[in-house]
Amino acid sequence: MSAIAVPAELKAKSGKEQQTLDVLLEVMRHSRKEEGCLLYNLHQAQDDPQTFMLYELWSDQQSIDRHIETAHYKAYRSSIEPLLHDRQVMKWNQID
């Protein structure tokens, strides 16, 4: 079974950039410790400080399923939603 990449682009509301960053750093810190998490990186657009990207790499779908059931993921989702204009998430199967 191949790994699954999950890039997510998040657009913070104006003035909510720091709060968004704080929430994203917290979920990243916890997620990196999860079984099946191969990579979990956070990026901020050079030309738009309101735009963030999470790039996650998981060993399989079961790891992602466990991830979205964790307390830190659920806290992240409830904390991040009021801070965002938009959130786009995709899943990509790695081709070896």
Automatic annotation (TrEMBL):
The keyword Ribosomal protein does not apply. The keyword Nucleus does not apply. PROSITE patterns: ABM. One of its GO terms (molecular function) is monooxygenase activity. Its EC number is 1.-.-.-. InterPro entries: ABM_dom, AI-2_Isomerase_LsrG, Dimeric_a/b-barrel. It is an enzyme of class 1 (oxidoreductase). Residues 4-92 form the ABM domain. Keywords: Monooxygenase, Oxidoreductase. PANTHER family: ABM DOMAIN-CONTAINING PROTEIN (PTHR33336:SF3), QUINOL MONOOXYGENASE YGIN-RELATED (PTHR33336). This is Quinol monooxygenase. It comes from Fictibacillus fluitans.
